[in-house]
Specification:
Blueprint lengths: L1 H17 L13 E3 L4 E6 L5 E6 L2 E6 L5 E6 L5 E10 L1 E18 L1 H4 L10 H5 L2 E9 L18 E5 L8 H14 L3 E7 L18 H9 L3 H10 L11 H4 L15 E5 L1 E2 L10 E11 L8 E5 L2 E2 L1 E6 L2 E6 L7 E4 L7 E11 L5 E2 L5 E5 L2 E4 L2 E10 L18 H7 L9 E5 L8 H19 L6 E4 L15 H11 L6 E4 L16 H14 L11 E8 L2 E7 L5 E3 L8 E4 L5 E3 L1 E5 L2 E5 L8 E4 L10 E3 L8 E4 L2
Parallel strand pairs: 1-7, 7-10, 7-24, 8-10, 24-25, 25-26
Antiparallel strand pairs: 2-5, 3-4, 3-6, 6-7, 8-9, 11-23, 12-20, 13-19, 13-23, 14-18, 14-21, 15-20, 16-17, 16-19, 21-22, 27-28, 28-33, 29-35, 30-31, 30-34, 32-33, 34-36
Helix pairs in contact: 4-11, 9-10
């Protein structure tokens, strides 16, 4: 009998252990659920086992399928909370602090990744005053899968926009949701799945890419483990090559105070070293300077701003490593601990590694040291010495990035979220596809249709950001892949229930990550108010409505002019170019009459082609409405 009882007890224990109710990472304490519609709740337990959900004193029941998976729907609930929810299946899980409001899925590449913490100088006041417990973000880490869509995410948390928890919020998503929250007074949830430097095809499912044979072929190849092994062996990462840096191999390292510099030469910061006598150098260059630090800087925390550095850097102050960044895009803003700086002479040494293109310090960025209210400029003459020269790679040097492969990010970061009920989607991406704008013209609508099909929520509002201005200014009419990519983004507005925030005027010529994220988020919010919330308001800048000739002149009419067509600087509209049948473009003279723009050009008496702001980074795209919303770039062919 004792033996039988032991066996029975063991079987009961096994049964209890097997009956562990499990919930997806998103369904947890402090989550925000979508208001005013039925809401999906799901998880897993034993096959065939009953599941109950108690919410607002009502009981909802279902059963797990043969694989142990279950799902049920809660009825529509108005905005509010907090609520508790108890889920039982063998064991019990009690979820607390649940709010109902609107949930937005925010995705894309680095400009959606960029956190408020990175922009804490511009938005110091916003961060310091953040106290919005009803705005919460769930951040999904970078994940990839080349084989199939996944059903789960690693453990994460819904974080409120309060205190230090605001810092990891996507800056664009934060200003978008803050604007929505303050207008409608409802809780807002952000699910952020975004990864820097990634193409749109990585975010699209295999089904969504069925009309793209070349991408389908890549998907199939990537499922071949032998092929992947070959790729990884033949395509080394340039940033991980063997370094034979003279600055690190001697008995005394070049960053140590005991090192005595010999044949170091003059160089200017900011600036690229290729523009200062170092022709076509990929390698390691050391920068060195002694600076006098006033006593007022010492004994308290300080910060040093080193603009942007191409590609990687290590900062040493008085022989101590004080900051390190491994790739070119983040602005260098390093916190210095109290006690690192000393009154009088201090040694600053910066080791810069560059793998392709121009290396060094990007101009037109902040370079200074500050503590409290004291500031010390770091621009000017420094000393430099080359530590290593990289030989050109042979063969396939492009590398193989899993996160850039078709479906890789959809499978791992989007698919597990598609059961979570949403209000809409915000998308900020395109830089990584600028080399193939014609393909993007098909890929963006394909992504929209694909995600709507996966979420099964009808024509889910889909809002996105058009690429800002970037790269060198060109003062002659020119061709531009970035302009073509922006045109592809504008064309996607033909898909129903979409909205686009124009960001052309918010860019920076020397930074693919412009600092102004607030206006981007606010413009997205305006598009949401019209598209997702049904408000009647001015949410778009001027859009061309018609174009016709009047002798040698061209008359353009516009819609979305709001309370009137105008320009940002009070000058006539600029960045208009015209061409005849020969496609040779010349700048046009312009004037406005009401909501019309009249173009004339003495070099083109029979205009056929019209362009506005058609460049990677147009110098002064000033056309807007009186509400301050800019016109998107466009081109028109006259019939």
């Amino acid at each position: 009998m004792k033996k039988l009882l032991t066996i029975a007890g063991g079987l009961l224990l096994v049964s209890i252990m097997q009956a562990q109710l499990r919930l997806p990472a998103l369904v947890r304490d402090s989550m925000i659920l979508q208001r005013d519609t039925k809401v999906s709740i799901w998880g897993s337990t034993d096959a065939g086992r009953s599941v109950t959900v108690r919410f607002k004193n009502k009981l909802y029941k279902t059963k797990a399928d043969n694989a142990g998976n279950w799902q049920l729907y809660l009825p529509p609930t108005s905005a509010g909370g907090p609520y508790e929810m108890e889920i039982r299946s063998g064991n019990s899980i009690l979820l607390k602090d649940i709010l109902f409001g609107d949930v937005w899925f925010c995705s894309g590449q680095s400009n959606m990744v960029h956190q408020l913490d990175i922009h804490d100088v511009r938005y110091a006041k916003d961060i310091a005053e953040a106290d919005y417990p009803q705005i919460r973000q769930y951040w999904i880490p970078t994940l990839t899968n080349l084989e199939r869509p996944q059903t789960s995410l690693p453990e994460g948390y819904w974080k409120p926009a309060v205190g230090k928890d605001i810092r990891p919020f996507s800056a664009v998503a934060w200003f978008f949701t803050k604007t929505i929250h303050e207008k409608y007074k409802i809780p807002i949830g952000i699910i952020n799945a975004s990864v820097g430097g990634t193409p749109i095809e990585a975010w699209t499912s295999e089904e969504g890419l069925m009309e793209f044979p070349a991408l389908k072929e890549i998907i199939q190849k990537n499922r071949d483990t032998a092929f992947l092994k070959t790729i990884s062996q033949t395509a080394p990462d340039a940033s991980k090559r063997e370094v034979k840096d003279a600055g690190l191999t001697g008995d005394i390292k070049w960053y140590e105070p005991a090192y005595t510099p010999g044949d170091w030469r003059n160089i200017h910061i900011p600036g690229y070293w290729e523009d200062q006598g170092l022709k076509d150098l990929n390698g390691v260059v050391w920068y060195r300077k002694e600076i006098d630090i006033p006593e007022s800087f010492c004994g308290k925390p300080a910060r040093i701003f080193l603009g942007r550095i191409v590609d990687a850097d290590e900062l040493y102050i008085n022989g101590v490593l004080a900051g390190r960044t491994t790739y070119q895009y983040p602005q260098r803003r390093y916190h210095l601990p109290s006690g690192l700086l000393k009154p009088g002479k201090n040694l600053l040494v910066i080791r810069v590694s560059n793998y392709s293109g121009k290396g060094g310090f990007v101009p037109d960025k902040p370079y200074y040291l500050f503590a409290g209210n004291d500031t010390l400029a770091l621009e000017g003459n420094w000393k430099y010495k080359v530590g290593d020269v990289f030989m050109p790679n042979t063969g396939n040097s492009g590398g193989f990035s899993r996160q850039s492969q078709p479906t890789a990010l959809y499978n791992a970061m989007v698919a597990p979220v598609t059961r979570y009920t949403l209000k809409g989607i915000c998308w900020y991406q395109g830089e990584s596809n600028a080399g193939k704008p014609e393909e993007y013209k098909q890929l963006l609508p394909a992504l929209i249709h694909d995600w709507r099909k996966k979420w099964q929520l009808g024509e889910l509002p889909f809002l996105y950001v058009q690429l800002p201005g970037f790269m060198d200014y060109n003062f002659l009419p020119s061709e531009s892949n970035w302009a073509l990519l922006r045109e592809a983004q504008s064309d996607a507005l033909r898909v129903p229930n979409t909205g686009m925030a124009v960001a052309l005027d918010l860019g920076e010529w020397n930074d693919i990550h412009p600092d102004n994220k607030k206006d981007v988020g606010v413009r997205l919010a305006l598009a949401a108010m019209y598209t997702a919330y049904g408000d009647s308001l001015v949410y778009s800048g001027p859009v061309p409505d018609s174009a016709y000739r009047n002798g040698p002149d061209v008359i353009l009419t516009f819609r979305h002019t709001g309370s009137g067509l105008t320009t940002t600087d009070g000058e006539p509209p600029s960045e208009f170019a015209v061409a005849g049948a020969d496609r040779k473009f010349y700048w046009a003279k312009t004037r406005t009459e009401g909501n019309r723009v009249i173009l004339s050009c003495k070099e083109v008496q029979e205009p056929v082609y019209i362009r506005y702001a058609w460049a990677d980074n147009p110098f002064n795209p000033n056309l807007c409405n009186r509400e301050g919303l800019p016109a998107s770039p466009f081109r028109i062919t006259l019939k």
